[in-house]
Amino acid sequence: MNYNVFKSLVDVLVKTYKCPNCSAEVNENSIDIVGAAGTTINVDISCSSCKQHSIIKAEATQINANMMDFWANPDIETIKKSLSNLLVNRNRVVNENPIKDADIVSLNKDFKNPELRVEDLFGE
After folding, report:
1. Residue 69 pLDDT class (50, 70, 90 cuts)
2. Beta-carbon contacts of residue 55 (< 8 Å; ≥ 6 apart)
3. Residue 107 included in any domain
4. Does residue 121 lie in a domain region?
5. Burial annotation 45-73 (CB, 10 A radius, 16+ → b, else e)
6. Exposed/middle/buried for 43, CB within 10 Å: 0-12, 13-18, 19+?
7. Residue 42 falls inside a structural domain
8. Regarding predicted confidence, which is higher, 86 or 57?
9. Residue 124 lies in a domain
10. Cα 114 to chain center, whole Å?
11. Total domains in the fold of the chain
12. Under a CB-based contact definition with an 8 Å cutoff, are residues 21 and 52 in contact?
């Protein structure tokens, strides 16, 4: 994932995310990256007020504006078709190797272990 896309995602979380338990705002220090691969990022947000943790899974997809017909012909049917194609392509990528919520929780626990070694993450 491109750094600017990653940074933008964190900035959006800081500006818009509210704790689902107490509605408190978050800051960059309360966002922990628990996984990132390709276009997907998984973050653990801890609320500084009520201490609740939330796991957020986000995906950033780059759009090639040169290939999108609606820039030249912005009618509603062309826009619908272009967005539908984006969704089909996204689903094909996601369905090839889906990440399960249990995998994210397991990684989160592993990353909190102060004695974690890189080799431990790739073992069975």
Report:
1. low
2. 34, 42, 43, 44, 45, 101, 104, 105, 108
3. yes
4. no
5. bebeeeeeeeeeebeeeeeeeeebebeee
6. buried
7. yes
8. 57
9. no
10. 25
11. 1
12. yes
Mean pLDDT of 94-113: 74
Place of tokens 């626990």: 109
**What string of H, E and C letters represents the secondary structure of the chain?**
CCHHHHHHHHHHHHHHCECCCCCCECCHHHEEEEEEECCEEEEEEECCCCCCEEEEEEECCCCCHHHCHHHCCCCHHHHHHHHHHHHHHHHHHHHHCCCCHHHHHHHHHHHCCCCCCHHHHHCC
The pTM of the full predicted model, rounded to 2 decimals, is 0.49
Q: Which domain holds residue 97?
A: 3-114
Mean pLDDT of the chain: 77
Confidence of residue 74 (pLDDT cuts 50, 70, 90): low
Mean pLDDT of 27-49: 89
Q: Give the mean model confidence (pLDDT) for residues 33-46.
A: 87
CA-wise closest residue to 28 among 51, 46, 1: 46
